[in-house]
């Protein structure tokens, strides 16, 4: 069995010295309890096989294997060595201060003896560790310290210590003197009640890092010296409470041991044994796979029984053996049995073959597929092949080349297309594999070119604003030491952290509401606030330089006056109240005039409200009324107008209807310029010219257009048009080459969402 577990004894000082704290500050015992809870939570969420023990010294009870009437008193083994669970978490929450003194050296001896007894005869423990939580304020005896240290070294037990301070107060004060600006900033943040200062910032569990700094007593100085000697001899580490809280404030998911997948890299006749490891992968912790439990007794096993029944009056149960898979083919379900499914599957074999080489610049970031990046190295044990592999990587690196690879994990898996690019860093030589899409995976979209119109061209001032924004938000040298400020290995997923917090809080306090803080904002508030303060002025300038304007397109008219017209109050029939005295008599002629005017206004309003199409009688007026109403859509109204123009031209006896058609064409042109829709008119005029070249009877109408110099909408008339004036003049020539017609049709393709006019008509 592989040795990958750790035996950890948590030794906590619960004496009177650990409970002393100034008002508004956490006691050392409270901070130690917070750190212990975070350690246990991390072990449980990681599903770690490490075993932990909880030992209290300075307690009122003496429960350990070495205790007698005179020795190893007031040392209590609360939780024997076992895998971390919620029982250990509850025991940590129950820690209370004791009233009896205890020797910290004796506590280390009891912890080492407990680890020896519990691990003796067991396999799989790679390390044994004692973690001591104390402020070194209790008395102790070090007369046999040399013997104890020799015993710890023989047993390979490492001792770590966590406390408020380890004699670093002078060094920190000296640092503050050398950096007065930083010191003053921290002091001001504390005085102003800034909750985001480093000393007051809560951890992801909601714990505070606030602690009081006070001078060390003589006893503490002696204890720190002895603890330092123990830690250094066993090659352990000293941590302050603040350092431990910062390290443990982030929950980590289960640590998975890297497993290699072996392939044979094939390049023509060259075959190399390689291994692939997961370098980057989307983390999906198993903790999120929720399971149904019985609320009254969560330990009760729940069995799921599924039944299948016919959807009819009989409601007959169907056995699983009677079911088969079916695929929809149109409106029909085609049954496919298991044998046919097996025959349908693509048969392949495990491979990792290089099929081509390409320039690295061809691998655009938009072509990257999948959620995993693999690191490819030469398989250990094949030294000659390793040299060939290193030569291939070096050659690809020197020529800036990538290799296109066909990869198949097994005979039952579908083949993949990907590429491997070389990576050389110091003494490490490898390649990275990234999945590429097949032709069926690509989605090609055509969008309007932003550089095609003058309206989308930024000014020099706008370009300078964007440059300033990029510079102010650049994290390349934003760190205090001038290094990269954004380190991906320290940027944690807020969704994962929130889930861990919620589960831990609900397990401890199931009846209290979840009042958790924003993890990422608290962990990175310094960086975020510094970046926000730098770019605030630039953002304000961008708001001034980049103004938003309403293009007034497809505006719907919903007011009553706009829908039914603004009827003059003088034309309305006056309403007579019963108590109203009218001195001037009303003649029959005046009543007749008012009734006639009112009737005409009402009739016009009804006609306006009922209008839905452009008619042949008054097409220009109908077109304008529909544009005012905003219903139907602008595209639909223009479609009706185009159809009407073509109908008038084609059905005209001679040139009888040409004048009306020309008025409609002129109205449509003016509206398209106003609404920034030149494509609609230009497509219609292109169609009219095509008809004039093929239908003899329509050349007269086209000649009228040429005489009036009624050409395409140019870019000078409308910013959305790509037709320049020279092209518009050539378009009106009597004989225009076919290439010009094709270019005119191509340059007018502006809006991908609008239908082509030829399709509409």
From TrEMBL:
<dbReference type="InterPro" id="IPR006164">
    <property type="entry name" value="DNA_bd_Ku70/Ku80"/>
</dbReference>
<dbReference type="GO" id="GO:0005524">
    <property type="term" value="F:ATP binding"/>
</dbReference>
<dbReference type="InterPro" id="IPR036465">
    <property type="entry name" value="vWFA_dom_sf"/>
</dbReference>
<dbReference type="Pfam" id="PF03731">
    <property type="entry name" value="Ku_N"/>
</dbReference>
<dbReference type="GO" id="GO:0006310">
    <property type="term" value="P:DNA recombination"/>
</dbReference>
<feature type="compositionally biased region" description="Acidic residues">
    <location>
        <begin position="169"/>
        <end position="179"/>
    </location>
</feature>
<feature type="domain" description="VWFA">
    <location>
        <begin position="7"/>
        <end position="163"/>
    </location>
</feature>
<dbReference type="InterPro" id="IPR016194">
    <property type="entry name" value="SPOC-like_C_dom_sf"/>
</dbReference>
<dbReference type="InterPro" id="IPR014893">
    <property type="entry name" value="Ku_PK_bind"/>
</dbReference>
<dbReference type="Pfam" id="PF02735">
    <property type="entry name" value="Ku"/>
</dbReference>
<comment type="similarity">
    <text>Belongs to the ku80 family.</text>
</comment>
<keyword id="KW-0378">Hydrolase</keyword>
<dbReference type="InterPro" id="IPR002035">
    <property type="entry name" value="VWF_A"/>
</dbReference>
<dbReference type="GO" id="GO:0043564">
    <property type="term" value="C:Ku70:Ku80 complex"/>
</dbReference>
<keyword id="KW-0233">DNA recombination</keyword>
<keyword id="KW-0067">ATP-binding</keyword>
<dbReference type="GO" id="GO:0000723">
    <property type="term" value="P:telomere maintenance"/>
</dbReference>
<keyword id="KW-0227">DNA damage</keyword>
<keyword id="KW-0539">Nucleus</keyword>
<feature type="compositionally biased region" description="Polar residues">
    <location>
        <begin position="200"/>
        <end position="221"/>
    </location>
</feature>
<keyword id="KW-0234">DNA repair</keyword>
<dbReference type="InterPro" id="IPR036494">
    <property type="entry name" value="Ku_C_sf"/>
</dbReference>
<keyword id="KW-0158">Chromosome</keyword>
<dbReference type="Pfam" id="PF08785">
    <property type="entry name" value="Ku_PK_bind"/>
</dbReference>
<dbReference type="InterPro" id="IPR024193">
    <property type="entry name" value="Ku80"/>
</dbReference>
<dbReference type="GO" id="GO:0004386">
    <property type="term" value="F:helicase activity"/>
</dbReference>
<keyword id="KW-0238">DNA-binding</keyword>
<keyword id="KW-0347">Helicase</keyword>
<feature type="region of interest" description="Disordered">
    <location>
        <begin position="168"/>
        <end position="221"/>
    </location>
</feature>
<feature type="compositionally biased region" description="Polar residues">
    <location>
        <begin position="180"/>
        <end position="190"/>
    </location>
</feature>
<dbReference type="GO" id="GO:0005694">
    <property type="term" value="C:chromosome"/>
</dbReference>
<dbReference type="InterPro" id="IPR005161">
    <property type="entry name" value="Ku_N"/>
</dbReference>
<dbReference type="GO" id="GO:0003684">
    <property type="term" value="F:damaged DNA binding"/>
</dbReference>
<dbReference type="GO" id="GO:0042162">
    <property type="term" value="F:telomeric DNA binding"/>
</dbReference>
<keyword id="KW-0547">Nucleotide-binding</keyword>
<dbReference type="GO" id="GO:0006303">
    <property type="term" value="P:double-strand break repair via nonhomologous end joining"/>
</dbReference>
<dbReference type="GO" id="GO:0003690">
    <property type="term" value="F:double-stranded DNA binding"/>
</dbReference>
<protein>
    <recommendedName>
        <fullName>VWFA domain-containing protein</fullName>
    </recommendedName>
</protein>
<dbReference type="GO" id="GO:0016787">
    <property type="term" value="F:hydrolase activity"/>
</dbReference>
